[in-house]
């Protein structure tokens, strides 16, 4: 028990540093960055960023890959991303932020990525529509796809059986920090985002986690899920 407490304390202290928190937040777009790029993001020196990255890598919150002269850092896995995104929901518990007030609606809170899946107001809308149309169902803290849902996803070119074979969580409820509601994450959430990008329903904004919906995407979501975005 003492060893577990010590490990938890170590992780908590690492997450508590402002510069490391900014680095982790910057990596939520799912891409890999160099120490120099993350130093600029956190507004710290290259040497300081390297020290922070070493600590984050040691506790396996990040992974590093060497390519040529550069070393690229990214979040270790989707679980780390889920924890970082969910921690933002605690903002409402601070004295400076009243729980009854939702974050001001911006392009970022409206439509963005959370690691490798859709988040923000649009992410919650899509998830709720999938539930309302009985394409997915809540199962504990996860989601499961219904029989009719398999056919619906198949019409998009998403093979549910193939996704279930992946070595990661299939579909789980991810608390959206700006909406205070759940959106769909996991392998299924990632496949939804990937498929919509491939079909040009969604486009990523350069150097940002923000997403934009194309006219085709708006039309398809209206026809398939009866939602307006």
Automatic annotation (TrEMBL):
Domain (HTH arsR-type): give its ranges: 1-98
SMART domains, sorted: HTH_ARSR
The Gene Ontology biological process terms listed for this entry are: response to cadmium ion; response to lead ion
Name the domain of life this protein comes from: Bacteria
Which molecular function GO terms apply here? Answer: cadmium ion sensor activity; DNA binding; DNA-binding transcription factor activity; lead ion binding
Q: Which InterPro entries match?
A: ArsR-like_HTH (IPR011991), HTH_ArsR_DNA-bd_dom (IPR001845), HTH_Metal-responsive_Reg (IPR052543), WH-like_DNA-bd_sf (IPR036388), WH_DNA-bd_sf (IPR036390)
The record ties this protein, via PROSITE patterns, to: HTH_ARSR_2 (PS50987)
What protein am I looking at? ArsR family transcriptional regulator
Higher taxonomy: Bacteria, Pseudomonadati, Bacteroidota, Flavobacteriia, Flavobacteriales
